[in-house]
Amino acid sequence: MRITEATLFHIAIPCTPFETSFGTIRIRPALIVCLKTDSGYVGYGESSLLYEPLSEREVVTDGVRMLSQKLSELIGTEVTDSDDILNTLEKDFPITTFAIEAAYTDLLAKQEKISLATYFGANRKTVLAGESIGLQGGIEGMLTEMKRYVDDGITRIKIKIKPGSDRELLEAARAAHPTIELGADANAAYAPSDLPLLQSLQEFNLTFIEQPFAAEDLESHRVLNEATPVCLDESVVDEASCKRSIELRACSMINIKPARIGSFRASKRIHDMCVEAGIGLFGGGRLETGVGKTMNVAFYALPGFTHASDITPPDQYLKRDIALPAFKIANGMYTLPDEVGSGISLDHETLEEFLVETISFTS
Ligand SMILES: [Mg+2]
Fold first, then answer.
1. Which one of 258, 287, 299, 336 is most buried, counting C-beta atoms within 10 A?
2. For residue 103, what are the domain limits?
3. Is 256 buried (19+), middle (13-18) or exposed (0-12) by CB count in 10 A?
4. Could you read off the pLDDT of 164-194 as tens digits, one per residue?
5. Tally of helices (H runs) and strands (E runs) in the chain
6. How far is the CA of 213 from the centre of ligand 1 (A)?
7. Quick check: is 160 catalytic?
8. How far apart are CA 291 and CA 106, in angstroms?
9. Per the residue annotation, which of 36, 70, 110, 160 is the catalytic one?
10. Tens of pLDDT along 97-133?
11. How close is the Cα of 232 to the center of ligand 1, in Å?
């Protein structure tokens, strides 16, 4: 199977403002990679970069430049299922080059005529959906959103917190929903001196507090993890940081985002490491389009994902999604498609509407 055509679609879709302690996202850019082979298969991948750096240093301009170069080099090359592809990618730009590795993975599953989830080694048919609520609405907005999710069958809700917007939010959330699985995500907004406050939040019976401290501050996470289960997100960028976090007992859970790790292959090794160490897992989201989201959820069907994943349907935050079929959650669950590979195709009419540029290479 040889690559004969490579296309990069740079799109920008207006989205519902999503506020975290890092900043607010109003336009969701995406770089969609399509690789075609001489056997007629098409593989898709998404790079979920932003125009301005929030929590990461890669941005869209780097992504377009780097992907253009890499895609031109891929024309005429064989698709293999070894780690060779990873060695050709730029390790310092994981979110950018993840689009290529994902498209490769989609092609390999299609070549084997199996679904992406089966290719990853998953045998579940459904994936539990959790929801994440941003900081924009205050207590009232949060409770309204929460009620809507609970009515839709969602059983795990994660609330974004930051210094000054934490205790009251969690107290109100817990009072309104005494039995729901409740988590808090701080996106590294707290200092070690906030430990007593964070420890006290366990009175609201939190399933986890996600990444309260800076990515490199594993020691504060370790101390907090003794009082309340800590979930690491930004700290786990590769296999080495995962191993270090587990050895130091800095976490009880990890939020895996394959895009942040840079490949499904390395993410699978992190998954296996966590299973062996008894560390819980859930899958994260980066406000992807249906392309990235559908591929991620196939990965989140692996047995090590012990908790509901952040898999909000893209049409809930994007003006319109560009992937077909529409990504749907019913009764708090996503049902995996039976199609070979990712099962995704592009809605070209919608894609046209949000298109910024197209870059194509052929043999
Ligand atoms: Mg997070």
1. 258
2. 3-113+343-362
3. buried
4. 999 999 999 999 999 999 999 999 999 999 9
5. 13, 15
6. 11
7. yes
8. 11
9. 160
10. 999 999 999 999 999 999 999 999 998 999 999 998 9
11. 8
